[in-house]
Amino acid sequence: MLPRWSIPLLVVMLAGCSGTTKSVRLHTGHGEPIVLIPRSGDAAPVKLDEDNFVGAVEALARSVRPSPRPQETARRVFEVESRSGLYLYDPRGHRVIPLGPGEHLEGTQPATEVELTRAYLRWCERTHKPGDCLRLLVESPTVTEDGRYALAMALAQGVVMDEMMEAFKDMADPQAMMAAVLWTWTTYMILLAVPEPFSKGVAAVMTASLIAYVGVDTFWSLIVGFKRLVEDAERATAFDDLREAGERYGKVMGRNAARAFAMLATAAIGNTAAGLGAKVPKLPGAAQAAVHAEAQMGFRLAAVADVGTVAVSAETVTIALAPGAVAMSAKGTGGGSTASKARPTGYRAWGSFSGFKKAMGPAGKNKEWHHIVEQTPGNAKRFGPQSLQNTENIIPLDKTLHSDVSAFFSSIRRDITGSPLTVRQWLSTQSYEAQRDFGLLAIENVGKGLW
Question: Which of 236-245, 249-258, 430-439 has the lowest mean pLDDT?
């Protein structure tokens, strides 16, 4: 890892550029990089209600065996080097025991660290989780450095931490599972806060997935907010200082982003890049995240495992992925719009569906014409009839598939949209690009029986 002094330096750099236009550079291995400038407000964090969040985290946790050394496990997942020795907390004697030669905690540690550690253990007692409840004392005799960040992150989450404990209540050791999620989450943020030239493997897939769930703007806010949390945590001399730092970061994050982050961190525990990539498209809210992935980053969420490296600077996220993972034929953007798609050869548009059918004729044997972006009155008013009645938006579909897709749009699917509205009603408020990306995804997933 980079030296600790680089964290505040990067805070200044990022915070100073927070008003600049953010962009995503997508390297596909073919030609020049694709540059996308996501429109602000187009990708609010995916809405995850409590039931879907708790259900998803509970299901993910069933395949995890929590490690007694969660920080060490998280370091292996993200390929981060060790920074300290190993210690054990003795819950009966309420003291920390070094693994190997060493002196008693009170005799060797600064008074502020000793008192902070005692306050942390008292907090665990007050929250009915006695002992080293977050496994902060496994590798250090006191709450110090990374442990401070993890504790502040735990204090930032509040309700979301309670929801996770609800999800883990039937496990043999709920606290061990909670510690595994917390250390995975914190270690990832530390890696992102002081990045190598590129993050890779699980960290790269995690970054791309997180952006898909929360959007580029919120993603940047999470980084800048965490850097401030790091500075505040290092200056903290009392438990209340850490609490204040955590609560400030909690407000920056918001509940939807916190749920998405916690869910992805749970999915990442002990996983590989391919394993995490396979899980992400099946999580709650993945449909909305898939729209964000294509509109803001230019690739299919289903191909997130193909993300090889991600680099984050003050103004740009640079993503390199394998050939064939790109869903959009983007050529670059400007004026604050998402990437435009190339018109197919022979592109034609009409003012009405009847005009289209008169010119194009039947869709084919056992096929029907299908609008990718639906021809609802609202869409016609917002986007104009020719944006709907054209050879790019209307395609032939098998009759059965067309019927199934139409039924899907008329249904209420909270597990996919996070909304009590029908899929059609939920989608109608979104941009043309988002509706098109979702429409294409719906055809694919309904055809495969996934939706």
Answer: 430-439
State the Cα–Cα distance between residues 97 and 374, nearest whole angstrom.
Answer: 65
Beta bridge partners, 87, equal: 98
Distance of CA 412 to the CA centre of its chain: 24
Find all residues with CB under 8 Å of 9, minimum gap 6, and list them. Answer: none
Residue pair 237/112 in contact (Cβ under 8 Å)? The answer is yes
Alpha helices (H) in 140-254, listed in sequence order = 146-157, 159-168, 174-193, 201-214, 216-235, 239-253
Tokens read off for 66? 């929590």
What CA–CA distance (Å, rounded) separates 208 from 273? Answer: 11
Q: Which two tokens stand for residue 134?
A: 């977050």
| Residue owning tokens 């395609």 | 395
Please state the separation of Cα 182 from the chain's center in Å. Answer: 15
User: Whole-angstrom Cα distance, residue 283 to residue 153?
Assistant: 23
Q: What Å distances lie between residue 134 and 117, 124, 174, CA to CA? A: 12, 8, 11
> Looking up tokens 């790269």, which residue turns up?
204
pTM score, two decimals? 0.67
pLDDT of 268 > 80? The answer is: yes
Q: Are 256 and 50 in contact (CB under 8 A)?
A: no
Query: 392-413 pLDDT, tens per residue?
Result: 899 999 999 999 999 999 999 9
How many Å separate Cα 214 from the centre of its chain? 6
Whether 132 and 147 have beta carbons less than 8 Å apart is answered as no
Task: Provide the 8-state DSSP code for 60.
Answer: H
The H or E element containing residue 364 is none
299 dihedral zone (left: phi>0; alpha: psi -120 to 50; beta) = beta
Instruction: Return the structure tokens found at 443.
Output: 């055809």
Q: CA–CA distance from 232 to each of 142, 145, 235, 247, 420 (Å)?
A: 18, 12, 5, 12, 40
Q: Which of 186, 188, 164, 187 is nearest to 176 (CA)?
A: 164
Q: Which residues of 130-148 are buried (b: 16+ CB within 10 A; e: fewer)?
A: ebbbbbbbbbbbbbbbbbb
* Token pair 């073919």: residue: 30
**Greatest C-alpha distance within the chain:** 89
pLDDT at 265: 94
pLDDT, tens digit, for every residue of 157-168? 777 888 998 899
3-state secondary structure of 200: strand
Instruction: Spell out the long-range contacts of 128-131 with Cβ–Cβ below 8 A and sequence spacing 24 or more.
Output: 129/175, 130/91, 131/89, 131/91
DSSP state of 25: E
| β-strand partners of 96 | 89
- DSSP code, position 140: -
